[in-house]
């Protein structure tokens, strides 16, 4: 009865086919007995038919070996059920019954990292979305919620720690050196939130007193060697618990909250009820090994998973089409938390940068889908930037349209109305409507239309009438699911800048009595394809500050002059738009350089001076937050520049951007040098926003200096590398050195890379950073270097973090080398990627499918490149037995 044959490719699931389950599972009792090489799972499931009894009941099950099966204690004979590689069908089940099954599974051989598997010495689970079916036969769908009792047993020496969801209710020794623990989760839950951990783990423990006075035990389980890296996650957890009480009125609901860190994990972390499982990269942090970005990521992910306890666990999804119900909302919640913990504008700028490079590209590509998709082949492919980041933007727009008081009323209503239920995005929006009285009918189009709307804005100033009008047109390009888009409801936050500052605003149809207190700011609500907004009593022709705070996930076109952009960069009261003006100015400058590159005149190209003038004034303004300053001085990434081009020329982008960067670096060298030399690399490290800000600006300055370094600059860099007491500064110096084209620097870089590895070889998370730096280093020859890294003892082709650090980073973050290959074979980068995908596809299809992304963009590249990329996609498509995960992405990309 072995049932592990591959699943056939290409079956599409549609939202319109959703039907409620015919049975529920009231109670789930599991005995999981772990032995070396094999595990036995005994499941006792209490089924209850919901309405009309169907002829047959099919349970999901994959890679299970069925050993025993009984209904109400009576063994079934082979005419009463059927078992195949997709599941188990019971013919004629009774209305109410207990099904007992016993299966054998092989966690040690489970390389998909889904279901029960072994990561180094730890047995752990990952069930979302459809991994529970690899543990036992079940109704593996989120609208079946059950009471779980889990008894785990294992060898006491190998696995002294045995964990599952909820509270521990029993435990003790067994014969043969084994022991057991029994856990009961008092909250009904879908099986995707099930978790189990067994291994030799050390723990850090703390306590939290909830607002209503209950004591909660907090535990973080890690390998003994990592005990010194848990403090930051623990304090982030406590901050998140307090924040959710204060901002959303949500308390934790069990006596214990556990986090377990494992090395082999397909994503960042998982919100299993009471027992979160984390990728070590998202929980471990200490100054010597973790960069500031790493500290912030730990804080954000710990909070994200914790917040799921309400937005996801207490109120869960009816089906997987509703994924953004929990993910979009929870990303919005964690972003607001991080904004409150650090700098709000910095957090916003960072998130928007991700959204409009990566999510916009997704929305313009073959995998584009609405935040509530209408169909999918493999749900694992839909844990996307669209579901997460665009989903969060949609919740952000709702929060802004409702205002803080009504939004809080709405979330209270949502949590109270649907506590313990599995619901849809419709119900989320309904709560928003009911609490605020607003009609959100048109707004709901954000849930079922994909694509990034483009706003074209024109304006007119009538000096005589003192009237200023803004005309905004919206259009959304066709996406695979829909060619003709209906108009979106788009909030456009804005203000107007005059010579002396922000102008008072009055729209023609506003009465003087209802002008808001802050009269320099408005949110225009665009609901038509084209709308004109007229402002009266405007004394001069203003510069419009549009889409403040990035108030909607759209692209915005307005013909700003460089002088307008300089005005906004220096004087806008909206921090985000100051940053945005810098980006636009830099983009225009880089686009000039790209033109020069294409005309073969890049060497003589001198950039327009506005950019450097603005940067200089910003650097001299001591009132600016240093982290904001660093972001404003950061040229748009190559990915963002690419996203702004109709046809992408990665070579022109790289060299043009580099030329502008080198120009900025040399023009402002004195100011940059001052920043770097004034910094004491031995000052005490704190992972707090003002310190992070200082480091980010100083390291941005070092990066600029090291583009064309003087001997003094090189010395500053080496000094920082040698004396840094934290990974942020150490990695920044190493990066600047390694990516520097100067010959002396290159020699130093080789030694520095070797020394760095020797120093950190026992810290896998630092080694990952070391690998990633080499993979993204743009200096020619990267593909050969990457191929050598795959042979390095530090590389492990089964570990997702290592795969990401080398292969993903090379293919996504080193566009110059990925797209130019080697001297003899310009398509070598594409072939390399296809080979890596093929090697990985049968082992870990989820990770393999994710690697395909850069190839899916083939239509955006010029003739030869695009065709060479397409060829590799075709090669994947022709591979017999390709996983459903990869098949979906490849087939949709070729269509
Ligand atoms: N909910 C999980 C993601 C699960 C991905 C499964 N392929 C982590 C998170 O978003 O919090
Ligand atoms: Zn999540």
UniProtKB/TrEMBL annotation:
Cofactor(s) listed: Zn(2+)
Keyword Metal-binding: yes
UniProt KW Protease keyword: yes
Pfam families assigned to the protein according to its UniProt record, in alphabetical order: DUF3458, DUF3458_C, Peptidase_M1, Peptidase_M1_N
Enzyme class, first EC level, given as a word: hydrolase
EC numbers, comma separated: 3.4.11.2
GO molecular function terms listed in the Swiss-Prot or TrEMBL record: alanyl aminopeptidase activity
UniProt domain Peptidase M1 alanyl aminopeptidase Ig-like fold: residue ranges: 451-559
Positions of transmembrane segments: none
Reactions performed catalytically: Release of an N-terminal amino acid, Xaa-|-Yaa- from a peptide, amide or arylamide. Xaa is preferably Ala, but may be most amino acids including Pro (slow action). When a terminal hydrophobic residue is followed by a prolyl residue, the two may be released as an intact Xaa-Pro dipeptide
Domain Peptidase M1 alanyl aminopeptidase C-terminal: 563-895
Peptidase M1 membrane alanine aminopeptidase domain location: 233-446
InterPro entries from the UniProt entry: Aminopeptidase_N-like_N, Aminopeptidase_N-like_N_sf, PepN_Ig-like_sf, Peptidase_M1, Peptidase_M1_dom, Peptidase_M1_pepN, Peptidase_M1_pepN_C, Peptidase_M1_pepN_C_sf
The family this protein is said to belong to: Belongs to the peptidase M1 family.
UniProt name for this protein: Aminopeptidase N
Name of the coding gene: pepN
């Amino acid at each position: 009865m072995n049932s592990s044959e591959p699943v056939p490719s290409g079956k599409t699931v549609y939202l319109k086919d959703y039907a409620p389950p015919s049975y529920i599972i009231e109670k789930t009792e599991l005995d999981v007995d772990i032995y070396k090489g094999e595990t036995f799972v005994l499941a006792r499931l209490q089924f209850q038919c919901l309405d009309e009894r169907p002829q047959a009941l099919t349970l999901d099950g994959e890679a299970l070996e069925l050993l025993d099966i009984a209904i109400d204690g009576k063994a079934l004979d082979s005419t009463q059920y059927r078992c195949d590689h997709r599941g188990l069908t019971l013919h004629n089940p009774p209305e109410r019954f207990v099904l007992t099954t016993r299966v054998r599974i092989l966690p040690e051989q489970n390389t998909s990292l889904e279901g029960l598997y072994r990561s180094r010495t730890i047995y752990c689970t990952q069930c979302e979305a459809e991994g529970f079916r690899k543990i036992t036969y079940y109704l593996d769908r989120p609208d079946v919620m059950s009471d779980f009792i889990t008894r785990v047993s294992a060898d006491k020496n190998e696995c002294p720690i045995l964990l599952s969801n909820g509270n521990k209710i029993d435990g003790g020794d067994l014969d043969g050196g084994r022991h057991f623990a029994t856990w009961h989760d008092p909250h009904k839950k879908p099986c995707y939130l099930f978790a189990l951990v067994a291994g030799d783990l050390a723990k850090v423990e703390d306590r939290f007193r909830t607002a209503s006075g209950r004591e909660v035990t907090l535990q973080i389980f890690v390998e003994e060697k990592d005990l010194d890296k848990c403090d930051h996650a623990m304090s982030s957890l406590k901050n998140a618990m307090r924040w959710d009480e204060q901002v959303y009125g949500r308390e934790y609901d069990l006596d214990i909250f556990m986090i377990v860190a494992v090395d082999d994990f397909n994503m960042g972390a998982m919100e299993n009820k009471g027992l979160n499982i984390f990728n070590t990269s998202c929980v471990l942090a200490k100054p010597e090994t973790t960069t500031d970005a790493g500290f912030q990521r730990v804080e954000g992910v710990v909070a994200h998973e914790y917040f799921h306890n309400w937005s996801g666990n207490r109120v869960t999804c009816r089906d997987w089409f509703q994924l953004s119900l929990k993910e979009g909302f929870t990303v919005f919640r964690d972003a607001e938390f991080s904004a409150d913990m650090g700098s709000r504008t910095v957090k916003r700028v960072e998130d928007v940068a991700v959204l409009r490079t990566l999510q916009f590209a997704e929305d313009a590509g073959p995998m584009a889908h609405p935040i509530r998709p209408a169909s999918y082949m493999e749900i694992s492919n839909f844990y996307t930037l669209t579901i997460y980041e665009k989903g969060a933007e949609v919740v952000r727009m709702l929060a802004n349209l409702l205002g803080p008081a009504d939004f809080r009323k709405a979330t209270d209503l949502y949590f109270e109305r649907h506590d313990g239920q599995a619901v849809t995005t419709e119900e989320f929006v309904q709560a928003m409507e009911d609490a605020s009285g607003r009609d959100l009918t048109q707004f709901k189009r954000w849930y079922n239309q994909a694509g990034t709307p483009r706003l074209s804005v024109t304006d007119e100033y009538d000096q005589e009438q003192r009237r200023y009008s803004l005309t905004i047109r919206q259009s959304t390009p066709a996406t695979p699911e829909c060619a003709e888009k209906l108009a979106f409801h788009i909030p456009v936050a804005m203000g107007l800048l005059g010579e002396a500052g922000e102008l008072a605003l009055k729209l023609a149809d506003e009465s003087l009595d209802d002008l808001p207190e802050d009269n320099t700011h408005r949110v225009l609500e665009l609901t038509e394809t084209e709308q004109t907004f007229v402002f009266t009593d405007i004394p001069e022709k203003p510069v419009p500050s549009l889409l403040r705070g990035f108030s909607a996930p759209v692209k915005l076109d307005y013909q700003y002059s460089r002088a307008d952009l300089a005005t906004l960069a220096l004087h806008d009261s909206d921090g985000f738009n100051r940053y945005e003006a810098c980006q636009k100015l830099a983009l225009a400058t880089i686009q000039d350089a790209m033109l020069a590159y294409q005309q073969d005149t890049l060497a003589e190209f001198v950039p327009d001076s506005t950019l450097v003038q603005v940067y200089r004034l910003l650097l001299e303004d001591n009132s600016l937050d240093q982290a904001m300053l660093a972001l404003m001085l950061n040229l748009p990434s190559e990915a963002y520049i690419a996203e702004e081009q109709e046809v992408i020329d990665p070579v022109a982008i790289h060299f043009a951007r580099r030329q502008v960067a080198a120009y900025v670096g040399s023009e402002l060298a004195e100011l940059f040098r001052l920043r770097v030399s004034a910094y004491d690399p031995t000052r005490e490290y704190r992972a707090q926003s003002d310190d992070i800000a200082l480091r980010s600006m100083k390291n941005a300055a070092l990066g600029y200096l090291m583009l064309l370094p003087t001997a003094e600059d090189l010395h500053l860099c080496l000094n920082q590398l040698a004396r840094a007491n934290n990974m942020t500064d150490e990695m920044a110096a190493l990066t600047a050195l390694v990516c520097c084209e100067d010959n002396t620097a290159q020699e130093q870089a080789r030694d520095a890379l070797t020394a760095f590895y020797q120093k950190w070889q026992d810290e896998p998370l630092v080694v990952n950073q070391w690998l990633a730096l080499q993979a993204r280093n743009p200096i020619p020859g990267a593909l050969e270097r990457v191929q050598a890294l795959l042979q390095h003892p530090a590389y492990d082709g089964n570990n997702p973090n290592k795969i990401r650090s080398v292969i993903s980073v090379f293919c996504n973050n080193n566009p110059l080398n990925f797209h130019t290959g080697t001297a003899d074979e310009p398509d070598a980068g594409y072939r390399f990627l296809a080979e890596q995908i093929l090697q990985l596809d049968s082992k870990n299809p989820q990770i393999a499918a994710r690697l395909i992304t850069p190839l899916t963009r083939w239509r955006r590249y010029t003739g030869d490149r695009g065709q060479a990329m397409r060829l590799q996609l075709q090669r994947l498509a022709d591979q017999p037995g390709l996983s459903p995960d990869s098949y979906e992405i490849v087939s949709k990309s070729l269509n």
